[in-house]
Design brief:
This protein is mainly beta. It folds into 2 domains: about 120 residues, Immunoglobulin-like; about 130 residues, no CATH class. About 5% of the residues lie in helices and about 45% in strands. The strands form 5 sheets. Strands 11, 12, 13, 14, 15, 16, 17 and 18 form an 8-stranded antiparallel beta sheet that branches. It has a 5-stranded antiparallel beta sheet with strand order 1-9-8-4-5, with no helix packed on it. A hairpin with a 5-residue loop joins β14 and β15. The chain starts with 12 loop residues before the first strand and ends with a strand.
Length: about 300
């Protein structure tokens, strides 16, 4: 039998409701909320053995009361018999509809989770909080042009993970990189020196499943950030994580460090000032709320 928390994603699934992070020690100190639009979920996947298929999908309140059933037609079914799995992909590219095909709006101000039923058992998502306005949040998005075990992307579907983050982007510490070699006379000489400009996203204290999802994101080559109201967007690279576990409980203070195409470069032969080669509008700093004037636009001079 598969472990149903094995897919590293923001909306994680379990085969036991008590595996949700709200049942973990220290949860009362956790302020992280997994946000969704009130008429749309964030993307997720779930996989089963080939003899197991989805029968029903329902939204439940955190107290276990039933809210509404969802149409399973919103899943993309991907059978992979050679790997002995069936994948179900929820791409979140369309609004929620119920079993009758009618649009759904989830009441804000409460917390919910998904309950998926198959012929062999029941499976439960992490808890999420619907909001009516997502314009004030950052979005982290990642994908690949090939599958990354254990996640299915599929070139025919173009699946992407993304989720909302209520935080800032700030400049991190510059990183000096020196490339040296021996000059043939036993002396080590510098060939080039480069200062990489780094940025930080402080996620605050997050549960273990978000830490795993972000760590999985960090090994992808196609990662993008969208700032509030989509005022800025850009690809990021060289992602690193700074984490500190909170007093032995499964919660972490997590900071995502990354780079874009901006750095200062000096070689032994010298490099003159060149015209800007603009590929992306990149981000210096962003904020939630109304502090949109704190965004600083930069351009790639690499």
């Amino acid at each position: 039998m598969l472990l149903f928390d094995e897919l590293p994603q923001p909306l994680a699934f379990y085969d036991d409701i008590e595996k949700q992070s709200r049942f973990h020690p220290g949860h009362e100190r956790n302020l992280f909320r997994l946000l969704v639009e009130n008429n749309r979920l964030i993307p997720f996947q779930i996989r089963f053995d080939v003899d197991e298929t989805i029968r029903d999908v329902n939204i439940l309140r955190i107290d276990g009361t039933h809210v509404i059933g969802l149409s399973i037609e919103q899943f993309k079914f991907v059978p992979l018999p050679e790997q002995e799995y069936n994948y179900y992909l929820w791409g979140a590219d369309s609004p929620l509809v119920d079993v009758n095909g009618d649009d759904i709006y989830i009441l804000c101000g409460d917390q919910y989770f998904l309950k998926i039923e198959t012929e062999h058992g029941e499976y439960f998502s992490e808890v999420f909080s619907p909001v009516s306005d997502t314009d004030t949040y950052l979005i982290l998005e990642w994908t690949e042009d090939h599958n990354v075990d254990p996640v299915y992307y599929g070139t025919d579907f173009g699946f992407k993970f993304w989720f909302f983050v209520d935080t800032f982007i700030t400049k991190g510490l510059p990183v000096v990189v020196i490339d040296s070699e021996e000059d043939g006379f036993g002396e080590i000489v510098d060939i080039s020196r480069k200062v990489n400009i780094t940025y930080d996203i402080d996620l605050g204290v997050v549960p273990n499943y978000i830490y795993e999802a972000i760590a999985f994101m960090a090994i992808h080559r196609e990662v993008r950030i969208y700032t509030p109201k989509n005022l800025r967007e850009g690809s990021i690279k060289n992602i690193a994580l700074e984490e500190a576990q909170i007093e032995g409980i499964p919660f972490w203070h997590l900071v995502v460090n990354f780079q874009q195409g901006r750095y200062y470069y000096n070689t032994a032969c010298g490099i003159d000032i060149r015209p800007q080669d603009v590929e992306e509008v990149i981000i210096d700093q962003g904020a939630t709320g109304d502090a949109y004037d704190s965004f600083v636009e930069q351009q790639d001079i690499s």
